[in-house]
Amino acid sequence: MPRFKLTDLSSLEKSPTSPMTLRNKIGEMLVNSTRAVATVEVVNPETGEYRVVLQGNLDQEENRFEER
Predict the structure, then answer these.
(1) Quick one: DSSP state of residue 52?
(2) Residue 66 pLDDT > 60, yes or no?
């Protein structure tokens, strides 16, 4: 799996994107994080709209998750 870096964060905001593409990018980011927390900020049951904020720390150490 490619390593997600700080410079890749801007790619999360590129529009339009499919939910699957966004899922893959966020998954890569979480796998390459040393800490992650999700906060649900808004849920609108009438429209189905939601807002979730992710906060964490990307692992900055090279080769940490690569197989040896």
Answers:
(1) E
(2) no
